[in-house]
Specification:
The chain has 115 residues and is mainly beta. It has no helices and 10 strands.
Length: 115
Amino acid sequence: QVQLRESGGGLVQAGGSLRISCAASGGTFSSSDMAWYRQAPGKEREFVASITRNFGARYYADSVKGRFTISRENAKNTIALQMNNLKPEDTAIYYCNRREVPWSWGLGTQVTVSS
């Protein structure tokens, strides 16, 4: 069973930057398209960004396009999300998972952006 562990969240002022990471263990990470999702208080979990297994394509939600960059290191079974020009509406718990047929969800990492 794959275990996902997100890290790197924190409190940042609007306009600031954060880099969050996700480590996967016990699964076929290198053969999976991976993604970041987020869930704000009182809202459903939503898609943020994804990257294909062979680094061929990256996709972003319109709300983060041009500000966030997703990356991966298959040798380390990790993905990352560089978040720049953060806005208060980016405040949420951020989760990583396989893009299709998700594994069990990790605990996520809290990102809080103050205005």
